[in-house]
Automatic annotation (TrEMBL):
UniProt-recorded name of the protein: Beta-glucosidase 42
Annotated GO biological process: carbohydrate metabolic process
Protein family (similarity comment): Belongs to the glycosyl hydrolase 1 family.
Superkingdom field: Eukaryota
Record-level Gene Ontology MF annotations: beta-glucosidase activity
Highest classification ranks of the organism: Eukaryota, Viridiplantae, Streptophyta, Embryophyta, Tracheophyta
């Protein structure tokens, strides 16, 4: 359905006319913004960063239709202070960003630690804290170091570990050495409580698929023939006919956020445990 048709349909829906405000959420509910490192950071050959699988993919002929890539992106590596200033002006309480594995460990293995990368993220975190914005870190956002993929098979290799504190009660030694006082402190008793305390592992996702076997119809055996998809986000196809005013006065996106936030507020009233809502920054 075309964007203008969607907007017309939404504007005719009475439920969209109800306003949503901060008072609809508990005082301890947090609003923030989020980005993924490959989409915003850029500087893909600067500061000691090694290549990631996204660099290799986007630079391969025929993989990206318009040949775009994240080599520069929105240049957050050089302009992070401006981004932090914008987040502060908008009144958000936290910023969820991901750390480039390749910028900290260029070869992915940790045999070489890149101090320039650590300094960059320290500076970003300090800039956020100075504005009263809580850093919220995504450790991995699909930008696996290329060397790790080519030499060890990436996540399929059994030597790769994660959730170290949950399983072992503390952070890996290399993190303790490099981050020092920045890491939360745990007493011996707290470490004992933390160790092996996990009940389940939750993963962030964008799409859910529901499929069913159709034995009587070989044509319907294709995985993509019978599915229902839900995504926390709104796809917006490029429309070269849109005017600057139409792009800035984005009524459809406003309606989307109103409806989504209203649903979140309703879920909280129904006693679902929801503590925050983050929106992807438009610069992505």
């Amino acid at each position: 359905m075309a964007k203008k048709e969607l907007l017309k349909e939404y504007e005719g829906d009475e439920s969209n006319k109800k306003e949503v405000s901060r008072s609809d959420f508990p005082p301890n509910f947090f609003f923030g913004v989020a980005t993924s490192v490959y989409q915003v950071e850029g500087a893909y050959k600067e500061g000691g960063r090694g290549p990631s699988i996204w660099d290799a993919f986007s630079h391969t002929e025929g993989k990206i239709i318009d040949k775009s890539n994240g080599d520069v992106a929105v240049d957050q590596y050089h302009r992070y202070k401006e981004d932090v200033e914008l987040i502060a002006k908008l009144g958000f309480e936290y910023y969820r960003f991901s750390i480039s594995w390749s910028r900290i460990f260029p070869d992915g293995l940790g045999t070489k630690i890149n101090d320039e990368g650590i300094n960059y993220y320290n500076n970003l975190i300090n800039a956020l804290l100075e504005k009263g914005i809580q850093p919220c870190i995504t450790l991995y956002h699909w930008d696996l170091p290329l060397h790790l993929h080519e030499t060890m098979g990436g996540w399929l290799n059994k030597q790769i570990g994660y959730l170290h504190p949950i399983y072992f009660g503390d952070y890996p030694e290399v993190m303790q050495e490099r981050l020092g006082d920045r890491l939360p402190k745990f007493s011996v008793e707290e470490k004992d409580l933390l160790r092996n305390s996990i009940d389940f592992v939750g993963l962030n996702h964008y799409t859910s698929r529901f499929i069913a076997h159709v034995p009587d119809s070989p044509e319907e055996g294709d995985f993509y023939k019978a599915q229902q998809m839900e995504r926390i986000g709104m796809d917006d196809e490029d429309d070269e006919t849109s005017t600057l005013h139409e792009m800035l006065d984005d009524k459809l996106r406003v309606v989307y956020y109103k409806r989504y936030l209203a649903a979140v507020a309703q879920a909280i009233k129904l006693c679902y445990f929801i503590i925050s809502y983050s929106v992807s920054i438009p610069v992505e």
